[in-house]
Amino acid sequence: MRELGSPLRVCAGLFKVYPMPKILLTSVLAALGLSGLLLASAAAPRPAALTLPLQTAAQLCAPGATKCQALCPETDCVQNVTAPLISLTTVKALAAATGLEVSVSDEVIDGKTYLNMLRLGLPDEPDEEVSSLQTPAMVGRGGELYYRASSVLGFLIQQGGEARFSSLPGLSLEVRGRVIGLQLGSAAQGEELLRELSFTFLEALLPEAFRPAAQCPSPESCSSSSPIVSARMSSGESYRVQTGLAEGEVVMLALPLSAQGPDDASYAVAVSPVDDQGWAEFSVSEAPKRFVSRREAVLSRPENRGNALLVRVTNTPLNDLWGGIIQPAQVK
Asked: Does 2 score more than 70 pLDDT?
């Protein structure tokens, strides 16, 4: 389960998010109506802004802070989990602004008890398997609960419509008619948030790799066939690519790993901000042999080992990440 560390595997019943549909944008501008349309666009109000304060477990539980309690299933999660967290109060404000429903309860899943499980869902949607998210609380402090921000934002992104992140350091997300400012302690925390969202990005790029239930008699029979996505390299070599992008943009490197069968597909992914010279640097277990842009060339198959995909994940519509594919000008 991607909530419980890396490598990440989605399991039925705990974390249910499905890829957003692609939106086909068509516009027909008649010559006589062009000026009127431009004036209407200029007069249209900007989406209302909302600021989300995000903190890490280490910040929340720093020495001298209000007593906090580790609620997450990981061992020593306060020390080891570097993901930005979002408070339940902030989640409720976000849900009210974007039309989601929120509830919290203790849940027993596969024999394990998860305290204060957050459930997000769409109102008036009968199929919870498709339209709900469950994610456990990580930290409790002063009567407030904190959850992984990537889980909440990932679910919001995948509910359809255009969404996009701005570049670093002032990271923001425009989604469902709102501009959501992400109040982070540093650009490094913004990078960590995008790293945690790499599963969501890969799912948007390769929806067929994450929809095995369509070929299965029931969701339960496919619960173990979602691919493993390793988003943190414990060790590896430095690998640099020249992106040609501006400083502060963020790119993702995705490498399909060998799969011997339909149930063991896996990917390695890494994210990196672009520096002032246009370079992005990754830590990878093995250097890519070639960069590709065809969808079938990055599916987890033995013949695709060594292929790599480089995609810009900031200032690119997240429901059309294929438009952000980059062929690097130079690698080191």
From this structure: no
